[in-house]
Amino acid sequence: MQTTSDMSMLSLVLNASLPVQFIMLLLVGISVVSWTFIFAKRSTIKKSLIQTRRFEDDFWSGGDLALLHQSISTRRAEQGALARIFDSGMTEFLKARRSGTATDVNATMDGARRAMRAAFQRELDELESHLNFLASAGSVSPYIGLLGTVWGIMHAFVGLANVQQATLASVAPGIAEALIATAIGLFAAIPAVVAYNRYTHDIDRLSIRFETFVDEFLNILQRQVR
Predict the structure, then answer these.
(1) From residue 27, how far is each of 18, 32, 183 by CA, in Å?
(2) CB 66 within 8 Å of CB 97
(3) What is the pLDDT of residues 107-150, one digit of tens each?
(4) Terminal CA-to-CA distance of the chain, rounded, Å?
(5) What's the rounded Cα separation, in Å, for the pair 123 and 118?
(6) pTM of the complete model
(7) Would you report the helix, strand and coil content of the chain in percent, each value rounded to 5?
(8) In this structure, are residues 108 and 97 in contact, taking their beta carbons and an 8 Å threshold?
(9) Cβ(56)–Cβ(213) below 8 Å
(10) Dihedral of alpha carbons 22, 175, 139, 127, sign
(11) Rounded to 5 degrees, what are φ and ψ at 79?
(12) Are 131 and 170 in contact (CB under 8 A)?
């Protein structure tokens, strides 16, 4: 019973050497931050998908684009990424028409295109925020855990120098506490890698939808200025 108690997870962590405990604490911190970003990014992408689908339905319903633009401008922050891209292009297009430069089709279309491209890049940067942390956590955490394992095993074998007869019972706790660091490192890395790959795929699909809409909307605007 005593051996089982000494080999419990909590006991191994508490009895680990200070460097290994520090590495475990660092990995737990990375895991907590990763899970925070994972849940936050999941909510952001899901919300963006819903807003994009809603705006596409409104845009392709055949209504007046001027009225749609007016309704979006009054609540721009609540409309979603694609609606803000549309708002940027439509605002630039209407500004060119009011200023009298709409007679130059190329200049008018170029202004609307640049406005939407700039808005597109801002929205994409916002969607991709914190993904670099997940990528770093997924690639670095196993190595941090491995560092703790190497240190713990080295500490265990150094401790054997003071033991006259080395047995499995004397070396097992040190090796076990060292392997916990690798386990925590993998626990931090695997969800971060899975989330990064999934969210990158979802954002790429949103990016394609945004780019497709920009091209289609520019075609609509070009027909209006002819």
Answers:
(1) 14, 9, 10
(2) no
(3) 888 889 999 999 999 999 999 999 999 999 999 999 999 988 88
(4) 87
(5) 9
(6) 0.82
(7) 90, 0, 10
(8) yes
(9) yes
(10) negative
(11) -90, -20
(12) no
